[in-house]
Amino acid sequence: MRKQFLLAGLLCMTVVAFGQKKEIKKAEKALGAGNVAEAIDYINQAESLLGAADNEMKAQFYVLKGKAYLAEAGTTDFNKLKTAADAFKMATELSPSGKVAEEAAIGKQNLRVALVNSAVADQNAQNYARAAEKLYTSYTIQKDTSDLYYAAGNAVNAKNLDKALEYYTTLLDMGYTGIREEFVATDIETGEDVVFASESDRNTNMLSGKYTNPTERMSESVRGDVLQKVTLIYISRNDNEKALALMKDAREANPDDPSLLRAEADMAYKMGDLEKYSRLMEEIIADDPNNPELYYNLGVGSANKGEAEKAIQYYKKALEIDPTFTNAKINIAATILAKEGPIIEEMNNLGTSQKDYDRYDELKEVKNGLYRDAMPYLEAAASDRPDNIELLRTLMNIYGQVGEDDKFKVAKAKLAELESKQ
């Protein structure tokens, strides 16, 4: 009698296994024919019978489920993309072999592409929180650390500093640098190097005849950027001790890493240590003397320290290297115009004596001299940004103060035109 019960149990298990295989086959056939919704119906039916299946069949089922939900999701339905991700993870945990393992690997790669493309769309739409979540989901699937790096960056933009710190700390613990091989070719029309997604992608584009000089190179390390972000998060939490300790350890371990030197300079600036900031920036410039942005940053630091003339010198150096650096033009004008504050204050406090009148005229001429000094830089900036209302309004007011009546009328008309379009 006991043997009969065992036999009945085995027969029951055989029927269940047959049902599982049948539903899985139906789902595979429907998915192959493009009937995704039908395939998912069969998958749901098979899932209820999955308990008695062996690991290989379970892995086959979860791969199929992942493929079906990925096909159903496209790049827009994140809930279905997450369902696909969970399915592929479960399949991988079951250690499939042969064809099932190959399909799992392909499915995970296709899912990563869908998640990254969807995250890029979210990022472009400034939906940074959703972009971060999608990129982190992608990381959990393929363990591509670049996905975690970009997830952290989007978390920063979303103001979710807890998540950003979690992701960045994971990267630091891994020793992440972001250095990877890049496949490059030169655009014949522009003369600029273009980085392609892969060697095969570059080789395919070479066939178009639009590119030349195919080569490989290693990308720059982003470890300094990671450390910079982490220290800034600590600073935002007023945890300066952790920020300083982290940067100290990093600099001791990598004393010649220029990205870490920049991160330390940025940290000094955020902490208000402008003396240290300027000293570090001078070190950075010594290694990269033709970088206009470095001189611009030094100008900002000098201006914040009240060193107006030094700031203007740095801004002018930035413009020598890059005459199109509009922000440097604006900041030169702003630094010059900042000198008018004490002059206006003294003018307002003068009395009605002849001596006071004479002093007023002297101060007015000094003030107008500042306006004339700032005017060329504002005009150049306004030429670069012709639709910038604030630049044009400042210029119009200056023209009125120094008696440039013709320029005043032109600026006033242009300002009215721009404001009417808002």
From TrEMBL:
Domain of life: Bacteria
Keyword Repeat listed: yes
Parts of the chain that traverse the membrane: none
TPR repeats, residue ranges: 292-325
Name of the featured protein: Uncharacterized protein
SUPFAM superfamilies in alphabetical order: TPR-like
Organism annotation: Pukyongia salina
Keywords carried by this UniProt record: Repeat, TPR repeat
Gene3D superfamilies for the chain: Tetratricopeptide repeat domain
Pfam name, any one: TPR_1
InterPro entries: CellSynth/LPSAsmb/PSIAsmb, TPR-like_helical_dom_sf, TPR_rpt
